[in-house]
Design brief:
Length: 246
Amino acid sequence: MVRRRARAGQGGGDEYHARVAARRPASAESVLPHLRAAKDLMDRAYSEPLDLDALARRAGYSRYHFLRAFRDAYGETPRTYLTRRRQSGRSPRLSALPTLARGGRRKEDDMIKRLSHAGVPVLDQDSAKALYTEKLGFEVRTDATMDEFRWLTVGPPDQPDFEFILYEPGPPMHDEESAQHIRALVAKGALGGGVWETDDVRKTYEELSANGVEFLQEPAERPYGIEAVFRDDSGNWFSLTQRTQP
C-alpha cells in the first residue's frame, strides 16, 4: 500500500509537487500585502455592506484561508475588525495630531531647534523612491551608498531643510531578526509615518489619486482641519491634512 502511494505521487509529476508546495506556509511578506488589501477595503468602505466573500476575493484567497490568515496576522476576525471600524466611524490616524504643541518656545541656545530628518522603513528603496518622487512630487535630497548602506532621503519642494529617510531594515541599524519583524509590520500596514500638510487637501487628494496613490480615506472634516489618509507602496500610512485656520 505504501509503495503504491509512493508511485502514485511520483507519477503525478508536476501536479503532485504543486500540491505539496501549496501546503507549505507562505512567508509573512508575501501574505500580508494581500490581507492588507482587504483591511484597507474595510477602512475605506466600512459603511457599505461588506461580507466575508467580498473581503476574501479582495485578498485573493478562499473564505477559509482568508479568515484564518487574517486572524493570525491581526489577532481578530475580519468581522470583529469591521465592527470596530463601523463603531469608530473613522480611519486610523496619529492620535497626537489634534494636540500638537503651539507656542511656548524657549530661546536658549542649548535647546533643540528643529527636526531635520525623519523617515520610515520601506520594503524596496527603488520602488519607494519612484513613488515618493514620481507620484507624491517629492525631490531627492540624498542618494548615496556608504559601506554597503544606502542613504536615501527625499522631501517636499516647499520644505528644503527637511529630509525624509527611506531605509530598508537591516544592518547596520538592525540585526536580521529585528529587520524581519520590521518588514512584517510594514507589510502588515501597521506603521504610520506621520502627517503631511497641504493648503488644499481636496485638490491634492484628486491630483495624487490621479497619479495612482492609494488612499484609505477621502478628505473629511475633523476638529483640527480636513484630513485624508493614504499609504505608500510598502504599507506605511500617512495623514494628509489641511489645517483649520485659527
